Amino acid sequence: MHLQIQQAKLGYSKPLISNADTSLNLGEVCLLIGNNGVGKTTLIKSILNQVPLLKGDIFINHKNIKQLSAKEIAEQIAVVFANSVVPQNYTVEDLISLGKYIYYPFYFELKKEDRKEVAHIIEALDLVQYRHTPLRNLSDGNLQKAFIGRAITQNSPVIILDEPTTHLDEKNKIIILKTLRSLAKEKHKLILFSSHDWRLAKEFADKIWYVKNGNLYTGMVEDIVLQHEELTCATLFEINPEYIPPHIIAPDVYKEMLFSLLQKNFRTDLSYLTFELTDKQWIISGLSEIIRCESFEEIIILLKTIH
């Protein structure tokens, strides 16, 4: 496990979250969700050792954060807060390039491969036309994308983002979150981001951390969502044109969970399969034999052996 939280109590004079016990691996995308004031930002700052734990431990790459310097934490974790300070007179390219300077003194010039990587990230975030635009002239949405670009160029194994899609329209939300998911899967990064929009978990995240009533509920998105009725009212993004869904026979909320799970994990035609939920088991037909799965995780493991 690359990020571990063990029996942690988080907060200030009074705890906001108690008995938090969870972990994440490289290659996973996790949504941190909960109402305002429940402790989401405090949890992020605790992982960064900016807010001391009231109890318990947090480990990054098997090292206790209490023993790590600020520079060592920065090498492990790139972070974007919702209200970041905007550097005066910087352009988009300047800000995104800043992510590289944790590896060099500020008076060093970036290497050719660094500049090439910065250019690639600017293109991936749909910011090419703003490359030389001063940050003060950007919309809130494009400014947020530039800060996310800086975190990506830092090349830390963990990227944490506090409300990264707050100022973004639907199109730019999808650009950002597809980019982050691609980083997790192709570059083996651990992505943790907070949001009020749980739909983002269904379409883009593998795991969910849900803060509610002083507790941290964690697990696969589909399992946690179905355990909390208040999280089950949303519509689909329909983001993956290459995905052709199977036939799904189940109550609407389970149908939606399975649709989203398969869409974000498979770029392929699954129309030859039928999934039917019966007595809390998924019966899968269309293969050489009928398969029964008791959880969404078993479904993913099964299909990854086929595709």
TrEMBL record:
Keywords: ATP-binding, Nucleotide-binding, Transport. One of its GO terms (molecular function) is ATP binding. It holds the Pfam family ABC_tran. InterPro entries: AAA+_ATPase, ABC_transporter-like_ATP-bd, Metal_Ion_Import_ABC, P-loop_NTPase. Residues 1-238 form the ABC transporter domain. The keyword Nucleotide-binding applies. It comes from the Bacteria. PROSITE patterns: ABC_TRANSPORTER_2. SUPFAM superfamilies: P-loop containing nucleoside triphosphate hydrolases. Belongs to the ABC transporter superfamily. This is Iron complex transport system ATP-binding protein.
